[in-house]
Amino acid sequence: MNITVYLGALEGKDHTLTEAVRELGTWIGENGHALVYGGSKSGLMGKLAESVLEAGGEVTGVEPQFFVDAGFQYDAITRLIVTKDMTERKTKMIELGDAFIAFPGGTGTLEEITEVMSKLSLKHLDAPCILYNLNGYYDSLKELLVHMIKMGLSTEEKQEGIYFAENLGEIKRIIETENG
Q: DSSP states of 94-135 as a string?
């Protein structure tokens, strides 16, 4: 299974992020899954790819040309797909994914996972969309989704397939249930 993970090219200030991203990558690699991610060697992105590779897994990076020109690509990964821009990158990452995880990240991570959420809502995608709510990182987004339903601007049906997982055990359970 191809697991698309969205996350930042920075490490963040919380050391538990590094530990959790390495744990996630090890699980992906050891369980015969393949990682699809943004292709960078820096920050949490690089640590995730490295841990998948160390665990014997395959890693596909999808990176726009301007990042490659700036030297951000991770040369040790299994495969690098170079796109013309970020829009093409997002499309390709969704096309390749069988499950989607948003690890704590910045605005790019948020933009990418909300596109997945929108496609689920429109029934243009049938795959689990998991927000890794490590240390409550996505609590505010979870509240916003509930608020959208309360306001009549979304429905529970439109949000089917969107999950919040507090730890790797919950991620595994969701993926196994949805793709089992």
A: HHH-SEEEE-S--HHHHHHHHHHHHHHHTTS--S-EEEE-GG
Q: How far apart are CA 173 and CA 130, in angstroms?
A: 11
Three-state SS for 78? coil
pLDDT digits (tens, 9 = 90+) for 42-61: 999 999 999 999 999 999 99
Confidence category of residue 180, pLDDT binned at 50, 70, 90: low
Whole-angstrom CA distances from 46 to 69, 144, 168, 169 are 17, 30, 19, 22
One-letter amino acid of 175: I
**Pair 126, 98: CB distance under 8 Å:** no
Q: Which residues pair with 62 in a beta bridge?
A: 81
End-to-end, the C-alpha distance of the chain in Å comes to 11
d(CA 68, CA 168): 31
